[in-house]
Amino acid sequence: MSEVDQPSCGEPAASSAEAGAGLPDESTALSARATSTGQAVESSEAAEDAAGALPEALIGSVSGAQTEVQAASRASVSGKESLSVWTISAQSLLMTIVIAVFVITFVVQAFQIPSESMERTLLVGDYLLVDKLHYGPPGVWDSLMPYEPVRRGDIVVFRYPVRPAEHFVKRVIGLPGDRIHLENKRVYVNDQPLTEPYVHLRRGSYEEFRDNFPANPAPYTDVTASWLRQMRTLVRGGELVIPPNSYFVLGDNRDNSLDSRYWGFVPRENVIGRPLLIYWSAQAARGADYASPQHANNWRAGDPDAEAAPQNDKLFFLRPVFERWLGIRWRRIFRLVE
Number of C-alpha atoms within 13 angstroms, CB side, residue 64? Predict the structure, then answer.
């Protein structure tokens, strides 16, 4: 029984041995599968990393391109804006120049009074704005537009007939068709004495031709030759007859005025306009030296007839400043001319 039982006991032993011999192959396979699985996982992660890295690179390049495009767009917009600003500025400047030229040509113009012929109505150093639309240009527009006619007593600015490049300002005394003469400085129009509250006359001053116009002007060199010839053809009965489209003008400072008595009539086309407003007025700076005590006292007292501060004054170096400041005629600024 025991012999019979030994083989049966040995077989299982052999099987166990065989089983033990086969275990390394299975573990090796398992290990190999695990290794391959790990490699696959690592490959998968690497692929995922590579796949993730690629969009990031693409995103970075796209972002860079977008930044460059945006920068170029901003530069283009900035360039267009700067060009637009320059264009607007140039257009504004051009419009300002056009408006200024239009205003100066057709509406108003600034003039300065350089002589004493219109004192005391207009003084040397008065700056005027002249209304150029009041009378309007002669011709077709004169009848179509509501322009005012030139009236006796009007102060007008006109081109000097002898030298048209120069501008004069005088008062209209005679209109076309009027008969004019002066008698002892008194003006007569159509045999009627003219009331002139604006006239400034010097006492004790008398000249035959000037004060009894039209007298014989031969001794007076200020009379132009062409006017002398024309005047002789227009005198009737001791009176000067004014031809059509012409005006006879005199200065308000009647004894110190180079006017129609000396060079003739003002043609209608020479009339520019009438003074509207004194926008600035200042006495001219005096350059003469006055160091006498009388002038010093007058200057300190604020005498408007005093010339200037004396040189021996301690503040002599401020003399131009005082002259300029004290010379401003504040009451005449923005005064209407009548």
Answer: 5
